[in-house]
Amino acid sequence: MSPSKRLRTTENEAEAATGSREKERGALDVSVTMPMYNASSWLDEGLQAILHQDFLGTMELSVFDDASTDDSRKVVEGWRERLEARGISVVISGHNSAQPRGVGYAKNKAITQSCGQYLCFQDADDVMLPQRVRLQYEASFLHPNTLIGCKVQRVPEGSTERYTRWINTISQDQLITQVYTSHGPTVVMPTWFCSRNWYLKVGPFDEGGKGVPEDLLFFYQSLRQGGSVARVDQCLLVYRYHEKATTHSVTEETIWKLRVDFLQERVLSQWESFTIWNAGKQGRKLYRSLSSTNQEKVKAFCDVDENKIQKGFYTYEESKQRPKPKIPVLHYKDASAPFIICVKLDMTGGVLEENLNSLLLKEGTDFYHFN
How do strand 116-121 and strand 193-195 relate by DSSP bridges? Predict the structure, then answer.
């Protein structure tokens, strides 16, 4: 089917209603896959948004209930007739074990039971805007083997303000260069859209359960497989923040180790030497986290703090080497590229960004952000 879908209107709803019959003949165009656990308070808003998608291809909703103890499955079943009347097939399954098996497991199950050629990932607590499926479907034709994202509206307004600004403002190039930052995937998981073939090549999601960053693991594996990242530069999702979100179960140390390993694999393995920009806590932590081979590549730390610079060196006290490694600490203007930047973005009133710009460096060649 052509990527240039028409908008859904009252006159052509009958055409869209052929969706369930299309499923009998073969694969659908798009499966909206939704893992679900105790989401009843959010489902009505999210399901109505799926109902109002203006995409005219064949479409289904595939829900897997990960042992909910509320009436989540009943709520979804209550929408079946309305969704199917609009040509959106509905597949619902789940399990009733004593404990949920985790979001990675539920995502894999929702995908396995679906049949769309493309997958639109949808969290049960988020709300998609009417044009989401159509625009991301169109983008997927232009960007094969790619995780497609979009801009988001964060609710409640003002929650995770820096993170939301980062999601919505990084450039297409930075979707690739900033994959090592602590924010995680540069296109956030609730906005993902990709072909089923690409999921099958990269996946499945890690099913380790609570505390496992299955989205970041999949994201990095996608890049390892030669995949790319792209974003529809429109807000297509209302992205909800709340304390019960599964992301809160993942520890910072788990994410840190994954990021360090990926940085060493993709960047540091290609460099003969480099400078760590930050002689403070985060820079020293990165140094200590590196392999001995990559520690030897660190030619200096750099900073703007005169106290750190005046000390002259950072001594790696935990090292078993004798004498212990002593790494010079320089002013950033006296240091040389390439750099790993261990200063948080958007936290210094623009000072970090101005300093970087003054050196006329190219992100992705002369430096990468790690924090």
Answer: antiparallel
